[in-house]
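Agenda item 2: zinc ion complex prediction
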Amino acid sequence: MSLKKTLSAVSPLTLRIVAECPVTKARACDLVLPHCTVNTPVFMPVGTQGTLKGITVDQLESLGCQICLGNTYHLGMRPGPELIEKANGLHGFMKWKNNLLTDSGGFQMVSLVELSEVTEEGVKFKSPYDGKEILLSPEKSISIQNSLGSDIMMQLDDVVSSTVTGPRVEEAMHRSIRWLDRCIAANKNPDKQNLFAIIQGGLNAELRKICLEEMTQRDVPGFAIGGLSGGEEKDDFWRMVTLSTDHLPREKPRYLMGVGSVSMLWIWWSDFWFGSALVPWGSLQVKQKQYAKDFQPIDPDCQCPTCKRHSRAYLHALFKTDTAAMHHVTVHNIAYQLTLMRSVRQSIVEGRFPEFIRTFMKRMFPSSEQYPGWAVDALASVNITLD
Ligand SMILES: [Zn+2]
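Presented output:
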């Protein structure tokens, strides 16, 4: 059956390519979504997880965040889709006026819930709240995401850790294609909510290609690259990302999952995230003794509310007594990544992206001997040589 012909070509999304770097093929785009236009590449913070470490919707908005992520698993369990639907979806519930992306809920289940079992029907798991057995099927995932009303929804996919090899990877890839078709059929709001397919296939190039070929025949509004960033070698990661982006349709958006941003170059930053402040020269632990009497802001060049007002010494003292210190660092980190992505975009638009990367790397690693090998290889694969 040719799905391309049977499905409506109308989607609530438009992608305009603003500029493309001739050297790396990195793109700057305007992604027009139902709630506002997103300027890509973009950093997408997690906005609605029950356990988010202190940042308010107001703050996210004033930092210029155009799209944030809602966790379907957490929201689907508590407060539950019925309540959120009554509040006019997640936008109404959290009073968020910009775009939202929701995941399928499957990944959290597989990673957080020990007792989960995957069958053709869906993912079975025991509720951590009351021990009841719950089935998350492709239909159920889309039904929850339809209730949440997100601008971008993710298909339920069969998630296998990227360190797994053998027949299970192939099974999961084929099942993800079948589940994509069930998700497409279950979507009640194709005119308002964009369903993204997730490319699977582990670290096996042949399986990735089959998945890409099959899924790009479906008329979905966008694609995500899944099944990565789960502990694989960094150069395996890059090979799979490049293979996937080479085969994806040019006119549709791509989303690199689980790495915090669609940019291909700031992946390792997520390693630094916990408890540290991100700075152009790496990361800074305000808790360390050396900052006790340091009256500079975290980053003197940063324009965020934390850096405009507070010193390292103040934050250092605050860390001893108050969780608000973590909050201030989170505000800085989110502002920092949003600003960084804006600079990346600007450099693509102005045709100086490779130069931007070289400068960025030099600041992060003062001596070229410190460049991580995988970063050198990944950059070489997009024609950027570091000096
Ligand atoms: Zn700052």
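Discussion summary: Residues 174 and 211 are 7 Å apart (CA to CA).
Owner for follow-up: CH.
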